[in-house]
Design goal:
Number of helices of chain B: 4
Distance between the termini of chain A: 32 Å
Number of helices of chain A: 0
Helix content of chain A: under 10%
Strand content of chain B: over 45%
Number of strands of chain B: 20
Largest sheet of chain A: none
Largest interface: A-B, 14 and 24 residues
Strand order of the largest sheet of chain B: 6-2-3-4-19-18-17-11-15
Oligomer: heterodimer
Structural class of chain B: mainly beta
Order of helices and strands of chain B: EHEEEEEHEEEEEHEEEEEHEEEE
Number of strands of chain A: 2
Strand content of chain A: 35-45%
Structural class of chain A: mainly beta
Radius of gyration of chain A: 9 Å
Shape of chain B: globular
Helix content of chain B: 10-25%
Radius of gyration of chain B: 19 Å
Chain lengths: ~15, ~260
């Protein structure tokens, strides 16, 4: 099963 | 004082049509580099990054860096009032809570100005690191739009797999399955009709199709689209905006639980 990742998992707050 | 004059006003109209359904409110940032935007969709799964470089404007005055919060639906409504051949000028005074869009017909016989209220938007800005992608696929943007539309009538998600054979788009749903393979094809009459696959490593990722269908609203901006893929990284769907910059959509993949 796959779940939807959020974009902030990959890119940090700048 | 901000004053940006864009002779090819239709570009801005197309940009708004490309992003208004994905993002409701966003800050447009203006600096010496250009006019830019970074915003996430409401579920924080996709991110859009737009750059229109200052050199692409006929006149570009931006005395200091400024961030203008706009409702994109309202901005799109205003820009729809500009003709496709109109010159569009954006104007804002320092500290003002409004932005003015001026539309000039090519023959200068009709000049309109529309003033829109700005809004305070507290948005999170993400740093996007440079990445080496496992595979980069360039293909005609209309072909990519067609594939996304076709697959979304069968299933909700798409698996994009790049191998040395080509790029495969697969979906499955209640009624059955679909696989579309595009092979590298550089022997075409026009370069924009080519499918070019650069692969360092095979890669296979799963994405929600409805976001791709939203991204394809940018198709009128460019004849080609570039998909950059790496395992466990958001895909980058890029439409280059001729002479000016780009609109890039980042979409987080579906991952194993």
């Amino acid at each position: 099963l796959k779940s939807q990742a959020r974009i902030a998992r990959f890119f940090r707050s700048s | 004082m901000l004053e940006l004059r864009l002779v090819q006003g239709s570009l801005l109209k197309k940009v708004l049509e490309a992003v208004k359904d994905l993002v409701n409110d966003a800050n447009f940032d203006c600096s010496a580099t250009g006019f830019s935007l970074q915003a996430m969709d409401s579920s924080h799964v996709a991110l859009v990054a737009l750059l229109l470089r200052s050199e692409g404007f006929e006149h570009y005055r931006c005395d200091r860096n400024i961030s203008m919060g706009m409702n994109l639906g309202n901005m799109a409504k205003m820009l729809k009032c500009a003709g496709n051949d109109d010159i569009i000028t954006l104007k804002a005074d320092d500290g003002s809570d409004v932005v003015t869009f001026m539309f000039e017909s090519p023959t200068q016989d009709k000049i309109a100005d529309f003033e829109m209220k700005l809004m305070d938007i507290d948005s999170e800005h993400l740093g996007i690191p440079e990445a080496e992608y496992h595979a980069i696929v360039r293909m005609p943007s209309s072909e990519f739009a067609r594939i996304c539309k076709d697959l979304s009538s069968i299933g909700d998600t798409v698996v994009i797999s790049v191998t040395k054979e080509g790029v495969k788009f697969s979906t499955r749903g209640d009624i059955g399955t679909a696989n579309i393979v595009c092979r590298q094809n550089t022997t075409v009459d026009k370069p924009e009709e080519a499918t070019v696959i650069e692969m360092n490593e095979p890669v296979s990722l799963t994405f929600a199709l409805r976001y791709f269908n939203s991204f394809t609203k940018a198709t009128p901006l460019s004849n080609t689209v570039t998909l950059s893929l790496s395992s466990e990284l958001p895909v980058v769907v890029e439409y280059k905006i001729a002479e000016m910059g780009y609109i890039r959509f980042y979409l987080a993949p579906k991952i194993e639980d």
